Every structure is written in structure tokens, then in C-alpha cells.
Amino acid sequence: MQKPLYLLLSLLVLTGSQAAAQRYGTAFGLRLGNSDINRTVGLSVQQRVLDRVTIEGILQSDFSRNTTFSVLAERHRPIISKRFNYYYGGGVSFGKEESFVKNPTTKEIIHTYGNATTGVDLIAGIEMTLANAVISLDYKPNINLAGREEFYRGQVGISARTVLVKSKEQKKRQRQRQKARNAKNQPQKKSFSEIFKR
Known about the structure:
Radius of gyration: 24 Å
Number of helices: 3
CATH topology: Porin
Number of strands: 10
Shape: elongated
Structural class: alpha+beta
């Protein structure tokens, strides 16, 4: 039973990857995160910068001991249509977080908070665009570079964003800007009457 399901999903992914992903240019909303350490509430904004590529900023906090800010570059691929796609990517994160240091001699765990942390975030998820809303489910692991004892923390997140700028509107604005640039760079043609003026 599972084998045909995997084959069907693989076929949908392969056939869908030829279409352009995403139905939005800019989306903004809430993100709820859950990990072994805490639960967070945050803001998420996604901006499409290239075809199938977005930059996402996530500011999240548990309003107690952990607040982080992440900037992620994400690649989007359609699964069934451009309204339903998967994405993956990575970026950097900064924050103030709690840390747990194990002391093997005393068998104590030293708990500190307010640590300034720097890390690398990875992300993989699926998202669906319905009307003017984007709903997504993702997994966002964090690899610590400085400020925290734990090297790795994983987080599952659910985001609900509203579409501020649709994909068509963004493309139209880009074409208008390109047209204006091209017109500016073109040498101005003199009218017939100006040729004879001295």
C-alpha cells in the first residue's frame, strides 16, 4: 500500500517541478514554534527575490529566556501546482538564549540564560496558498556557533501569513521598472523641427 503512494508522490513532484512555484511576492504573518526546550510565538515575513527563491525573516520569542532572529534564503519547488509547494534553505540566526552545561564531576546541570548566540539555521517545509493566505509547516534545525553549550536544536513551526503583494503584481512592477530603466538609457531623438534650430 505504501509503495504506490510513494510512487504517486514522486510522480507529482517530478511533473510539478516544471511549473513556477509560489503565488505571492510578499507575505507576512505569525509563526508558532515548538522544540524540546520551549514554545515560541513569532513574526515571519517572506519576500520573493528571484523565480522560486525567497528571503524569510523570522523573529520569535518564548517571552521568557529565548528570543531569536533568523534570516533564511529559501528555494521553492511546486508539488502539485504553484499553490502547493515544498521549500528548503538556510541562513544565519542571532539571539539571546538559555544554555545547559553538564558538569560530569558533580553531576550538576548549570542553567544560564541571556547568552548572546550566533548560529546557522537550516529549514525544510511545505506550504499552501489559499486565496490571500499562505499556510506552512516546517522543520528548522539550528547549529550553534557561539554562546550556547548545545550544538544542535531542532524546531517544528507552523506559519500563517497573509499575502501583501501577489506574484503577478510583483512581476508587473518589475517589468515597469525595467521599462523605465530602458527608456532612461535610450538616447533621446530630436524632433524634425529641432534639427533646423540653431
